[in-house]
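Summary of Year 1 activities. Much of the first year was spent building the evaluation harness for sequence design. The harness presents a backbone, in tokenized form, and records the residue chosen at every position. We chose the following record to illustrate the format because it has been used consistently in internal testing since the harness was completed.
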């Protein structure tokens, strides 16, 4: 874990910290992840840096093996409501997605480029799904990527560990919430 620097135009991207996702059983308590996400968001807002809050409202239409054994059924009405602890503000960018990653099929890249963002800091749930997919796309789009590994969790411990230990070091730098806030200056 060693984030070295943050670009002057860095954005925070928090993935799927919403009621329907934070209600899932996760490896690390979702309340702690939301609290760290809220601390990051407050620090970015204090410095006038963009805060992106991503929420998922549906899944991609493709057929998967996981769907066959799924619980199905309707989602609660508040499933996509962002966690209120994040303290959403009018200047925040809200991205609504229909796939795992926050870039595909959304205007996230356009929103970041309009603000001349060159780096993103990521956190959220689930590490191996929404966060990893977004990190891969951010890297492919040419952004510097920093991952707040204590501001993310997963429903599967091995998947979380694999992303944090094997995948993320290839996509960017990893560090703690406190260290990243410290880099903001």
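For this record, the design step produced the sequence shown next.
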């Amino acid at each position: 874990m060693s984030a070295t620097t943050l670009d002057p135009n860095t954005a925070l991207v928090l993935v799927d910290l919403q009621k329907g996702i934070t209600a899932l059983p996760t490896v690390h308590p979702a309340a702690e992840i939301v609290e760290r996400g809220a601390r990051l968001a407050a620090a970015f807002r204090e410095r006038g840096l963009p805060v992106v809050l991503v929420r998922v409202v549906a899944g991609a239409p493709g057929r998967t093996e996981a769907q066959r054994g799924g619980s199905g059924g309707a989602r609660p009405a508040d499933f996509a409501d962002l966690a209120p602890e994040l303290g959403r503000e009018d200047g925040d960018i809200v991205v609504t997605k229909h796939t795992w990653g926050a870039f595909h099929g959304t205007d996230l890249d356009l929103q970041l480029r309009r603000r001349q963002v060159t780096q993103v800091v990521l956190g959220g749930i689930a590490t191996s799904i929404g966060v990893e997919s977004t990190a891969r796309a951010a890297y492919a789009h040419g952004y510097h990527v920093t991952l707040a590994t204590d501001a993310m969790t997963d429903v599967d411990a091995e998947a979380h560990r694999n992303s944090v230990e094997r995948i993320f070091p290839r996509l960017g730098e990893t560090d703690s919430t406190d260290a990243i806030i410290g880099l903001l200056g």
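The two ends are 19 Å apart (CA to CA). Quantitative recovery figures across the full test set are reported in Table 2.
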